[in-house]
Amino acid sequence: MMGTAVFYLVAVVGVVSALVAVSHKNPVVNVLSLVVTLFCIAVSYALLGAEFLAAAQILVYAGAILVLFLFVVMLLGAPEEPPVGERRPFQRVAGLALAGIAAAGSIAVLAGIRVAAPAGAAQGTAEALGRLLVGPYLFAFEFISVLLLAAMVGALMLVKRKH
Amino acid sequence: MWAEIAVSAVKVAVIAGTVLTLVAVMEWVERRGAAFIQDRLGPNRVGPLGLFQPIVDAVKLLFKEDLTPANVNRGLYLLAPMISVSVALLTFIVIPFGAGKDITVFGVPLGGIEVAPDLGVGVLFLLAIGSLGVYGIVLAGWSSNNKYSLLGGLRSSAQLISYELSMTLAVLGVLLATGSLRLDAVVARQGGQFWLGVIPQWNVVPQILGCIVFVVAVFAETNRLPFDLAEAETELVAGYHVEYSSMKFAAFLMSEYMNMVTASALIVTLFFGGWTFPGMGRFSGWPLLALSLVAFGIKLAFFLWLFVWVRWSLPRFRYDQLMRLGWKGLLPLATLNLVWVGVAMAMGWIR
Lengths: 163, 351
Hints:
The complex is a heterodimer. Helices cover about 75% and strands about 0% of the residues of chain A. Chain A contains 6 helices and no strands. Chain A has helices spanning about 1-25, 25-45, 50-75, 90-110, 125-135, 140-160. In chain A, helix 1 (about 1-25) packs antiparallel against helix 2 and helix 2 (about 25-45) runs antiparallel to helix 3 (about 50-75). Chain B is an all-alpha fold. In chain B, the strands form 2 sheets. Chain B has a two-stranded antiparallel ribbon with strand order 1-2. In chain B, helix 8 runs antiparallel to helix 10 (about 245-270). Chain B is globular.
């Protein structure tokens, strides 16, 4: 019961702050709302028994990546965006139609989902996740590491060439 | 169920009360310690040895005018000190302050002097919540609409991200040796056994590199000298909190001292055996609990004093020196420590 109440709370807060993140005019508020959304997602992970994933979500996304976002927004001076006039009217219609399809799809999928994980089914501990990463998914894990390294070196090269 | 809630509530009240009292005590220690190091007297008028000075200071801060400058972003300006204090108050719930696994109170197992002993992710929770603390400083800097504040906030965010990496890598060494994310497992592994019969098996002995990296990194994470570039008063007036007054300013001050307490407790727990002490095998129950609190208190006091000691001994780093130390000094050392722990464990040199 407690878990259900917490779920509904973080679901509502998460969706509202996600809406604020895409609609508010002030870029700093956008980034902060995104932080709140990610925090709510982390709480949902924790409710499902994936404690490690929850902690990693906060540590990596809310604690590091979005701080960099905020850093960039603040460095660029964060001008408040002026309201843009509607240049392509079909965008709104097409967007609404696509959103409707996505909503219908998610309702169809979500209708059968139970909120809290059944007791004893917790697979999200650090140990279970670690065994999966260096076991069946070892290749993918190492491949992603090399990919990230390549992206980092590539970014450095792009920056170097300008000087 | 109500008994369990009551036991938890009492634990929270006692631990939070102790940490908040330590904040006041540390303010006194800082000022008297500074005076001692600089060969002067320091505040010694209010109460014996000036011990009541923090109370007077708190009353002063409470009754000062609470000024909100024009042109600040009001919502974020109010939110920033709240974030700082909330984060500082949340982080110490996973730290085991004392023994007590074998004690039951009113039929409820006490589970040690720790607010959340059953949290499986343990130290990761602390690192995750601690990493949110930077928002308080950055938002304070940005919302104040003042260029000194903004510079302080920007410096702080770059600094915290750089040093968080080395700090986490240093913690990883300890977690690897322990095989668990829980801090009470970290403590249990370090207690009761000795190398050569005299040296306690604390993590600091095999992982001296990791310990040094961790201590330096937490100094940076708590924004203490020599890493307090976020408030460098010679260049930035007071940095990110230059526009704050009264209790909002005090909130930043309190969170800095609370973070200091948490950081010292974490150093003790990860590298210096936590609440364990030589000869603890002869005690159990309440006497063990009392003695473990004393042992933890002594270790904690040393590292709290280290914070004060370093602050009044070392000059502040220049910004490029800070970044060079973080990325070219601490990060390779932390990685080396992690590799060393892995190799030593694989070879069976440390169990």
